[in-house]
C-alpha cells in the first residue's frame, strides 16, 4: 500500500495544552491506577515506539569480546591470570621416559620463543608506541568530538520539535476552546428558543381556549 492511501495518524489529546489531570487530582489518580493495571496485565505495553531503532548489540561476531562486555556490565571481577603456560614443569618422576623429557624440552623452547617475542614487542613499543598512542588518542578525540556534535544537533532538533509541537498544540487548543465555548453558546441559544417555543405554544393554546369559550357564550 502506498503512502498516499495511508490514513494519517489521529491524536485525541493535546498534552501541552490539556490540564484536566492537574485540575482534577481525583481523575489523575484514576488514570494512574488504570495505567498501572494495564501495564501489569500487558508487560509488552511498555515497549518503545516502532520508529525508535532497536538497541545496538556490540561484538556479535566476536564471542570473546561479547563475553568480556557482559562481564564488565555485570560488574564481575576479572578472572585470574593463567600462569600454567608460563611454567617449566619437569617430568613427573625420576623414571620419566624420553617422550616426557622431549615434551618438557619442547615446552621450554616454546617459553623461550615467547620471551623472545615479548622482548621484540617491548622494543618496538618503546620505539613506536608513543607515536602510535598519540595518533590513536587523536583519532579517538576526533571521533568523540564528532559524536558530541551529533548529540548536540540531535538535542537541538528534539528541542525544536517539542517547541513546534507545543506551539501547534497551544494554537489548536485555543481554537478548540473557542469552538467549545461557541458550541455551548449555541446549545444555550437553542435551549432558550425551545423554551420560548414551549411558552408560545402554551400561550397560543391558552388563547385558542379563551377564543373557544368566547364563541361558546
From TrEMBL:
It is found in: Nucleus. InterPro entries: SPF27. It comes from the Eukaryota. Residues 137-210 form a coiled coil. GO terms for cellular component: catalytic step 2 spliceosome; precatalytic spliceosome; Prp19 complex. Keywords: Coiled coil, mRNA processing, mRNA splicing, Nucleus, Spliceosome. One of its GO terms (biological process) is RNA splicing. Pfam families: BCAS2. Transmembrane segments: none annotated. Belongs to the SPF27 family. PANTHER family: BCAS2 PROTEIN (PTHR13296), PRE-MRNA-SPLICING FACTOR SPF27 (PTHR13296:SF0). This is Breast carcinoma amplified sequence 2. It comes from Phellinidium pouzarii.
